[in-house]
Automatic annotation (TrEMBL):
It comes from Parahaliea aestuarii. One of its GO terms (molecular function) is siderophore uptake transmembrane transporter activity. This is TonB-dependent receptor. SUPFAM superfamilies: Porins. Residues 168-629 form the TonB-dependent receptor-like beta-barrel domain.
Length: 665
């Protein structure tokens, strides 16, 4: 089941994400959660939102197919700023390069076969820079097993859904290997929609006399036929319309490759050196079906990075200091086949290339002040530089006769951003295995390249600042008699220089938002084989000033930000024996507003999911999952476009059967 803060304490597990090395999760003065391998296997997530329901404060809003939008101590955020406000990582290395994120980027990670998914809520530690504002989602690769083991899995579900996976793991002669491959195909619940997806993860560990190496190669490929929003008030309740796809021509193709090799050695006297070179390559092509003129966007980037980290342990003081640099070659084109209007003409709208360099210095320490007191603190300086090259004509993409050309290509230019983050936290173990903590931290994100260079309506220069966020929080976590574990956090965050599109369609800085909330995790085991869990959030995300947002003519200060439910979470009741396990899950999503004036609203929903597994003998086991058990009509996401309600429809009751064959282990 889910390994939230409390369970990590009860089984004395560690957290890697905060320090990039194993650390006792109990006395870390920050909010964190994790989902372990057992919960990942039992959930069998078709989409990452099913897994992240086990993390309080997190809601991954599902689009069509494998598309998603993220909320983590935030509203669901969209656009370049939406993905840039969260750091999505695999083994603590960002899935995409700073400045080149994508809102759907979690589909690049092999979450289906991860060793664990760890989450930091609120600004990250000094080991993380741009984008670690609202939090960090870190997908950790599995450690190779000591004894050889293999696993083959086959799965089938509704709408021609099939998935197969293979896993080999073992260690011999100091070399550990873990190979995981999976592929899925889905015919899609909606008309003319579906996807094929493949992922690979290969990890090799080697322990030599002096150096230890951890090397990982990961790749993913997605070919998706995409369905757009369906329009009409509560149309998701209409059996005759809910499966319609207004955009059968839409598609999204994406692939990614990432590789790194982490070399570490003991320097003596409690000091360790760690050097990590890494490589990343991403490409995505898709039809922008969400705008009437439907251009095709093709984007990609290739990165090389190097990180050096020196760690020391001198009894009561543990510290780390490091430097990292990353160079990225990124590019984007947007091309429209046919004329839509003089302001949205056929041809090349954008064609540019950006060389980006990000460099940082950082330090993070933990000081055991006394037997029950721990002080953590960190400092980071980061410099981001973009060298932009416009590869088509400067200025408007339209003919001189256009009245209000939609697309503007700025001339070649360079931009740079310098940012500093600080964090400090204090933890007090007021009773054995019971901890009170207080933390203050800030985070930032440099503007995304598309916010700077993909301009509209004649904006010649986007004079943007880095967004800044300040966070203060207090929390309790602990373990009671090895049966009840808990975690409670109260936070207040204020974000400034938020980038938005104003009434003139210009990208500008200056919005302010406020984020206040509470997050609760409970994990209780009783009667030897029974367990119960709760992950719940209560929050208010609101505008803190009155930015002149595009299409908004009234004051919105104090209003809820759109797509920000005030309450959401999940609860689980389960039974686990030696050969079988069953779990009933309740998922709750409160009502939320759909636009800044708070004039349109989605009612929210509640769902039940049922999962069970049974060992059949001789290495064979079966898992049955029933999602939306009560067959509720609901929307995965609600929105307003051009004054009309529109939705991504949630699927009805669905049954999935999985067979696993395990050899060894």
């Amino acid at each position: 089941m889910a390994n939230t803060d409390g369970e990590a304490l009860r089984t004395e597990q560690v957290l890697v994400t905060a320090t990039r090395s194993p650390r006792d999760a109990l006395r870390l003065p920050l909010s964190h959660s994790s989902v372990d391998a057992d919960a990942i296997d039992l959930t069998g997530a078709i989409h990452i939102n099913e897994l992240m329901q086990r993390v309080p404060g997190s809601w991954i809003s599902r689009g069509n197919g494998q598309e998603s939008l993220t909320a983590l101590r935030s509203p669901v955020l969209t656009g370049a700023g939406g993905c840039g406000s969260f750091l999505m990582a695999a083994d603590s290395i960002s899935l995409r390069a700073p400045g080149f994120c994508n809102v759907n980027q979690l589909f690049d990670a092999n979450t289906e076969q991860a060793g664990r998914v760890e989450v930091i809520k609120g600004p990250g530690t000094a080991l993380y820079g741009t984008s670690a504002m609202h939090g960090v989602i870190n997908v950790l690769s599995p450690t190779p097993a000591q004894m050889p083991e293999q696993n083959l899995s086959l799965e089938a579900g509704p709408n021609d859904y099939y998935r197969g996976s293979y896993h080999y793991s073992g260690t011999q002669g100091g070399h550990g290997v873990d190979l995981r491959i999976n592929g899925s195909t889905d015919g899609g619940y909606l008309d003319d929609a579906g996807y094929d997806q493949q992922k690979l993860s290969l990890r090799h560990d080697y322990s030599g006399a002096v150096w230890q190496f951890q090397s990982v190669l990961e790749g993913s490929n997605l070919n998706q036929e995409t369905a757009g929003f369906i329009s009409g008030y509560k149309v998701y309740e209409d059996d005759d319309l809910r499966r319609e796809n207004p955009n059968p021509e839409a598609y999204r193709d994406a692939w990614s490759v990432r590789a790194y090799s982490q070399a570490s050695r003991d320097l003596g006297e409690g000091m360790t050196l760690q050097i990590t070179p890494y490589y990343r390559n991403n490409r995505m092509t898709f039809l922008q079906h969400f705008v009437p003129w439907q251009p095709v966007e093709d984007n990609g980037h290739e990165s090389l990075g190097l990180r050096g980290l020196l760690q020391g342990d001198s009894g009561n003081l543990t510290w780390m200091a490091g430097a990292e640099a990353e160079f990225t070659d990124g590019w984007l084109t947007e091309i429209q086949d046919g004329d839509f209007s003089p302001n949205q003409p056929a041809g090349v709208h954008y064609d540019y290339q950006v060389d980006a360099l990000t460099a940082a210095l950082f330090t993070q320490l933990s000081w055991q002040l006394a037997e029950r007191w721990t002080l953590d603190g960190g400092l980071r300086y980061e410099d981001t530089r973009y060298d932009y090259d416009n590869r088509t004509g400067d200025g408007d993409a339209c003919a001189p006769t256009a009245s209000a050309c939609r697309f503007f290509r700025p001339a070649d230019r360079s931009d740079s951003f310098e940012d500093v983050t600080v964090n400090v936290g204090l933890a007090f173990e007021y009773r054995p295995r019971q901890v009170l903590f207080l933390r203050a931290a800030n985070g930032f994100r440099a503007p995304e390249t598309s916010e700077l260079y993909r301009l509209q309506a004649g904006q010649q220069v986007a004079d943007l600042d880095s967004e800044q966020i300040d966070n203060i929080e207090v929390g309790l976590r602990g373990d009671v008699a090895g049966a009840l574990s808990y975690s409670l956090s109260l936070y207040h965050m204020r974000k400034e220089d938020v980038i938005f599109q104003d009434a003139d369609r210009f990208n500008v800085s200056g919005a302010r938002t406020r984020h206040r909330g509470a997050e609760l995790s409970l994990d209780y085991r009783f009667l030897e084989q029974w367990y119960a869990g709760l992950d719940f959030s209560v929050a208010k995300h609101s505008y803190d000033n009155n930015p002149q947002l595009l299409g908004v003519e009234e004051s919105i200060a104090g209003n809820d930000i759109d797509t920000a439910p005030r309450r959401f979470g999940s609860a689980r009741l389960g039974w686990q024996g030696q050969r079988a396990q069953a779990e009933l899950e309740w998922v709750y999503l409160d009502k939320y507003y759909l636009e800044p004036t708070n004039s349109f609203e989605y009612d929210g929903h509640q769902l039940l999911n049922l999962r069970g597994s049974l060992a059949l003998g001789q290495g064979l086991s079966a898992t049955l999952r029933v999602t939306n058990l009560l067959d509720e009509d609901y929307a995965e996401r609600a929105d307003v476009g051009f004054g009309e309600y529109r939705y991504f429809v949630g699927q009805p009751r669905s049954v999935y059967l999985q067979l696993d064959y395990r050899l060894g282990g």
